[in-house]
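Bump. Still looking for Lactate utilization protein B/C structure tokens.
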Amino acid sequence: MSAREMVLARVRRALADVPREETPDQVPVVRDYLASHSPADPVGMLAEHLADYRALVHHTDEAGLPALIGGLLTARGARSVVVPQGLPAAWTAVDGVRQVPDTAELTAAELDAVDSVVTGCAVAIAETGTIVLDGGPAQGRRRITLVPDHHVVVVRAPEQVVDSVGQALPRLVPGRPLTWISGPSATSDIELDRVEGVHGPRTLEVVLVRG
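Sorry for the wait, here they are.
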């Protein structure tokens, strides 16, 4: 018996007592599991998990945000930065750094030549250290966060931080292009050697803005 036949046989055994005419919507599913484990400090947990994933985490307030982002771009040696629609102009107004608007005409090759990208986010998940982008204001199209090698993402804390995936999902629209980010892009080969920057930015910097 092949592996496929074994799996199908187990499925048939599991469904043996289910009437053929029964449909999934006729059987209520109990969803009484916890939506969150209620961490004492969700923002602190998010920062800790992001650091575990080798993201660089920074803290600031609203007034200090433009200077912090400018310092990150300068320290990176960035000469150009992708700017999505809706991103406050002051965030990327850095001397010597060319602003590249996110437009439909911007090609992958042109994006590859850009040094950095700065975006906002839709929501951040403390328990998994995950940041979700949905293409909304200040987030831009999906490709602008996958091609440039350096991504700075701004998370407003605590209003954009939730405890769990279960709390994040109601904030998201399934029909939108969702990008789930847990640290910089990384993968491992068959010998478990870690390689970064394969299918996304090699460097992820997260700015947590309080207040």
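The chain has one domain: 39-210.

Edit: fixed formatting.
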